[in-house]
Amino acid sequence: MATGPDLAGRVALVTGASRGIGRAVALALAEAGADVAVNYRERAAEAEAAAAAIRGLGRRALAVAADVAEGAAVTAMMARIEAGLGPIDLLVNNAGIALRRDIEALTEAEFDRTLAVNLKSAWLCTQAVLPGMRARGWGRVVNISSGAARGSGVIGVHYNASKAGMEGLTRGYAARLVQAGITVNAVAPSLIETDMVRAGSEDYARKVPMGRLGTAEEVAQAVLMVAGNAFMTGQTVQVNGGMQFT
C-alpha cells in the first residue's frame, strides 16, 4: 500500500512559490507526480529556477507572475495556467508577507496590505478554482497558516489576524465542500528556517522544544500528507517542533 499521495495527472498551483516554503512544496508536489504552476510576484529568476527544477523531475511546470491579492491578476493567472498546464486540481495558498511592526508603528496601509496578501489572496484563488473542482468532483486546497494564528507570534497583530482569518476560511470552505469531493485543510508552520525568520535578530531556535528551526521540506511533507488524505478536511496541522499542542 502506497503511503504517499499519487498526484500523477494532477495540476497544482502553489502561490508565492519562488523560494522558501512555497518552493519546497512545489518540488514535493512534482515529486509526487503533479505538474506545477509556480506563482510569484517579483522574483522572476527564482521562480523560473523553481520551474526548471520541477521539469528536471520529469513534470511540466509554468512560472507565472501575478499579485494574488488582486482579483484581475488572479483571473489572468488562472487563464494562463489552464492554457499551459490544464485545469487546477490542487491549490496551495502560500503567498504571504510578514512586515515586522510594533503595535504603535503599524499603519492602516500596512494592516490592509497584510490582510490582502495573506488572506484575501487565498479567497480569490480558491474562488477561482472551485468551479472546475466541483465539475470534476475532486479537489484539494491547502492553506499555509502559521502558529501566529493561535499564539502571540513574532511579526505583529496584523500578521496574527491574517493567519487566524486563513484558518477560519479553511473551516468555512471545508464545511461547505465536504460532499463535493473537495478537501480544504491548513498547515501551520512555526519558526521554519526561511528568509522571514532569518531576518529577525533573535535566536529563535532557543524557543523550540526540539532545539532547532524547522525546514521548508518538513512543511512540504505535511502539505503532501493532507493533499493525499481524502478523509481529512477542515483541519489545521501544526509543524512547530513541539511549541504548541492542540
TrEMBL record:
Residues 10-195 form the Ketoreductase domain. It holds the Pfam family adh_short. One of its GO terms (biological process) is monocarboxylic acid metabolic process. This is SDR family oxidoreductase. Gene3D superfamilies: NAD(P)-binding Rossmann-like Domain. GO terms for molecular function: oxidoreductase activity. InterPro entries: KR_dom, NAD(P)-bd_dom_sf, Sc_DH/Rdtase_CS, SDR, SDR_fam. Keywords: Oxidoreductase. It comes from the Bacteria. It comes from Dankookia rubra. Belongs to the short-chain dehydrogenases/reductases (SDR) family.
